[in-house]
Amino acid sequence: MRTTLIAVVAGALSLPAFVMAADASPHAFTGNAGLVSNYVFRGISQSGGKAALQGGFDYAHASGLYAGTWASNVNWVTDNYGGTGLPSASNSLEIDVYGGYKGAITDDVGFDVGLITYNYPGSNTTVGGTFLKPDTTEVYGALSWKWLTVKYSHSTTALFGWGKTSGALNKTSGSGYLEINGAFDLGDGWGINAHVGDQKIKGNGPASYTDYKLGVSKDAGYGVFGLAVTGSSSNGSCTAGAPTNAAVDVYCWGTAPGKSAYDAGKSAVVLSFSKAF
Prior knowledge:
The structure is a single chain. The chain is an all-beta fold. 2% of the residues lie in helices and 55% in strands. It has one helix spanning 76-81, and strands spanning 3-9, 17-23, 27-36, 40-41, 44-45, 52-61, 65-73, 93-104, 109-119, 136-145, 148-155, 163-164, 167-171, 176-187, 190-200, 209-219, 224-232, 252-253, 262-263, 268-276. The strands form 5 sheets. Strands 3-6-7-8-9-10-11-14-15-16-17-20 form a 12-stranded antiparallel β-barrel. It has a two-stranded antiparallel sheet with strand order 1-2.
């Protein structure tokens, strides 16, 4: 909790000075908005290589408790299931809701634990044993040391609609994502960020992969510009330009009628602009 000390001198000479302590509010509300040339999450494009508009709101309490929501346009659900007769496979929006608790163990070591749900409105029906809803819930925990953070996320539901290879309706709950992130302040508003992650999808080895990201950012005062290179070991998911081999083409978006195949795990250069308020 932040405290402001205000010294007030009442009168002169014969009148004593006194100090009042005024506590700042323990509640903090912030927002953010941004635009990216390609929405890439864990090394996989969620927007089919197209631009995405994003934004969210956060609440934080001085105790360390926090909650928030964040949204972005996506197209991977519709690109894979739209027009296939599934009444709830039409989707163009991702809405995340999360909450948790963070704090400090020492001056240099911190922790963060919480829960997040990834929601895809209009995509919540399982039909004919062929489509698992992509809505996903994960619990997570992270440890940070200065500029380095290690985080593990564990799904309690089927992970983003993936089924086990033994059957589409065998849910992949229990999947895990381990990531290491580094953020380096170079001064004068410049920064470098690096990331490597490993996604394990329970019961579905072909869909498991590793990913990386290396980027640079510049705080221009009125917003932050970013440039990053991302990629994953699932690169090459579209053999012969189309999803033909289920054991290889796991991240080849465009299986729905009239959609073009897109290798969602291929390397990409992402430009971004974000503004906090």
